[in-house]
Amino acid sequence: MTPKDLCDSAPKGWNFILELPKRQDFEAITEKAWNVTLPEGLDFEGQHFSLPDGLSVNAEARWVEDSLLSVGISLSSRVVGECARCLSQAELAISDDLMYLYFSRGLDFEDTELGSDDGFMPVEVDFLGRTLSIAEQVWESLIVLLPARMLCRPDCAGLCPNCGEDLNKGVCSCAPIGDPRLSVLRELLE
């Protein structure tokens, strides 16, 4: 499953509905905050993550032009998972602010004054009315913030490949094996 597939599959029942400011009122901003629980956690890239404190989401919307809506999404959470090297519990705080630019289908985005190089991620929607569901973008933002590899600490020594001892607790009793590709050189030195 790719990140895009996961982004397209936000959990059922996620209700991130944002009321929009009045169109053409470029000064008005609407804001909303949510705290969401994911009791079963989530699986991504072969890893299982739990969010014991839930996911804190804040969003604010404002019109940039008549048919362009800027939505800022802030996420923060504590993520717990398994260390990729030693398999012990690892913990990480994630948070970020992401900007999305919503525009109606059919609008030529290249003709607008803003582009994705301005820090916005463009999102094409069928219709911009009085409310907007941002569930897919919240899910996408969460997936983007998850670590590719969870580590208990940056210098984690991992497990011994022979006996499975946690090398963070000390050296194991296994004899050093060395790199098998260098065995011919070791034989020459003996």
Explained architecture:
- There is one protein chain.
- With 190 residues, this protein is mainly beta.
- It folds into two domains: 154 residues, no CATH class; 33 residues, no CATH class.
- Helix content is 12%, strand content 35%.
- The chain contains three helices and nine strands, in the order αβββββββββαα.
- The protein has a five-stranded mixed beta sheet with strand order 2-5-6-7-8, covered by helices on one side. Strands 1-9 form a two-stranded antiparallel sheet. The protein has a two-stranded antiparallel sheet with strand order 3-4.
CA-to-CA gap between the ends? Answer: 50 Å
* Low-pLDDT windows of residues: 1-7
- How many beta-strand segments? 9
Name the beta content range: 35-45%
Question: Structural class, from secondary structure content?
Answer: mainly beta
Helicity, in percent?
A: 10-25%
Mean pLDDT: 86
**Largest sheet, strands/sense/barrel:** 5 strands, mixed
User: How many domain units?
Assistant: 2
* Element-level helix/strand string: HEEEEEEEEEHH
Shape from CA axes? elongated
How large, in whole angstroms, is the Cα Rg? Answer: 24 Å
Q: How many helices in DSSP terms?
A: 3
Main β-sheet, spatial strand arrangement? 2-5-6-7-8
